[in-house]
């Protein structure tokens, strides 16, 4: 039984742009105390894909300054440049092209185009425009978006390799606020659906995975915890547990009790 379980888990990979990953937890690299804490938390999370805000993090564009790639080397991690801080399609496209240049032709990017500084909600019109341009330019686009099922499908149809709906506003820690929208997105998707933004604690990550999402991306929930490294470990376990529960299939919800042990044939 144990061997069968290990085999089932080993073959259950997250596939993004044709590449399989054993970890379904993607992590950010901002907000940590220093690069060493970033390294330790990333390792504890078991993450294989790590996001990097090109506008805020040095990955070689600032010679002489600490370089994130020294602690998270590209031969061990898939570096996912993101367009955090961009508010127009043009800025986002320009940032992705810079990332490709810095990472020697790397095409996998995370697109996010924000609508305003207060809510950090995505500007979906600008996001669609940027996605179309980037896909035509040969990028493999993982796209941050709202939890609108119609928009999610449209982004998939444009050619995005993964759609990443928010669970709640970025950094809010509110958890999943509209699980029915997420279910609708998951059930109609042919590309990975990865919850991005709003996760606050391990139970939020587990719920996302139990809904059938293919992965979870987080930063603040880990970096902002009292013990980021321990929280990273907790998130790793939560994502794994949620995925296993989804694959196992939960029991139906019932209004009344159902005895755990059969009552037929009880003596006396």
With helices defined by DSSP (H or I, 4 residues minimum), what is the helix count? 9
Strand order of the largest sheet: 5-4-3-10-9
Give the strand tally. 10
Largest sheet: 5 strands, parallel
Distance between the termini: 37 Å
Rg, nearest Å: 20 Å
Overall SS class: alpha/beta
Helix content: 25-40%
Shape category: globular
Helix and strand run: HEEEHEEHEHEHEHEHEHH
Question: Runs with pLDDT <50, length 5+?
Answer: none
Provide the β-strand percentage band.
15-25%
Give the overall average pLDDT: 91
Task: Please give a structural write-up.
By secondary structure, this protein is an alpha/beta fold. 37% of the residues lie in helices and 15% in strands. It is built from nine helices and ten strands. It has helices at 2-10, 35-45, 89-102, 124-136, 149-158, 179-187, 202-210, 220-223, 228-248; strands at 14-16, 19-21, 25-28, 49-53, 78-82, 108-111, 140-145, 162-165, 194-196, 215-218. A five-stranded parallel β-sheet has the order 5-4-3-10-9. A three-stranded parallel β-sheet has the order 6-7-8. It has a two-stranded antiparallel ribbon with strand order 1-2. α5 links the parallel β7 (140-145) and β8 (162-165). The two termini are 37 Å apart. The model has no long low-confidence stretch (mean pLDDT 91).
